[in-house]
Specification:
295 residues; mainly alpha; 2 domains; 8 helices; 84% helix; disordered N terminus
Amino acid sequence: MRFTSLPCRMTLTAAFIFGTGLFAGAEPPTTAPSHQALDDNVSAELQVGEAELSSARQRFEIVSADLRALQERMRTGSGRFDVSADALESDASRYDKELESLQLESVGAKARRDAIEKAIKEQSDQAKAALHDDPVAAELQKVVDARQEQEKFVAMQTKAGVATQADLTSAQATLAEAEAKLAERKRDAAAAAGAENLAPLNRELASLTIAEDEREAKIEFLKARLDKLRPLLEMTDDLQDRERDVAMVREEYYKAQQQAEIDRMQAQRDQIIGRLRAQRAQPTPAPSTPAAEGH
C-alpha cells in the first residue's frame, strides 16, 4: 500500500530543508556531528520503526489466519461458501418461515383429507344401504344365483356326455346376461343414493395424498438445512469477534505503514540537514591575493 509518491516525498523533503532555514541565511552551529554519527542515529530510529511495522504485520497475519481457519471450518461443516453472520441469519430466518408455512399448510391439508375420507365413507355406506334395501336388486341377485347353479349343472352334464357344448354355452350366456342386469341395477341404485359423488372425492383424495408427500419432502429438507445452520449460528459470535479483531489490527497495521513512511522521510530529511550543517561548519579557506600569486 503506497501512501506517498516519490515526487511528493521529494517535495516534502525539500520543504523540510527550507523549513530549517539553511537556505535563508540562518547561522549554522559551530560544531556538527560526524556523518557516521548521523547515519548511525538515523539507522537506529529506522530500525525501531521497522520493528514496530513488522510487529503490526505479524499481528495482522495472525488474526487474519485465525479468521480464515474459523471460516474454513464453518464452510466444511455446512457445505456452503458464504458463512458470514448476516448470510447465516438471513438463511435461517428464511428457512424457518418456509418451514412454518409448510407445516401450517400441512395442518390444513390434513383436516381436508380427514373430511374427504369421512365423506367418502358416508357416501359408501349410503350406497351399500341403498343396495341392501333395493327390492329389484334383490330379485336380480336371486336370478343370478339361479343362473349360476344352472351353469354348474350343465357343465357337469356336458362333462358326463349327457349335455352338449352348445347347452353349456347357452347357460353361460344366460348367466352373463343376468349378472349384467344386476350390475346395472346396482349402479343405478348407487347413483340414486349419491354414489356419483365418490369419483370426484376419490380424485381429490389422491391429489391431496400426492401434495402431502411433496410437502413432507420439503419439510424434511428444511429441517435438515436448519440442523446444519444451528451450530454455525452458535459460532457467529466468535466469527464477529474475529472479524472485529481483523479490522482493528488492519487499521493498526495501516497506521504503522504510514508512520514508517513518515519516519523514512524524516530520516532522509535529517540526513540531508545534518550533512549540510556539517559542510557549513567546516572553515572556508581564505582567498589568495594577487601579490601572493606573483611569488
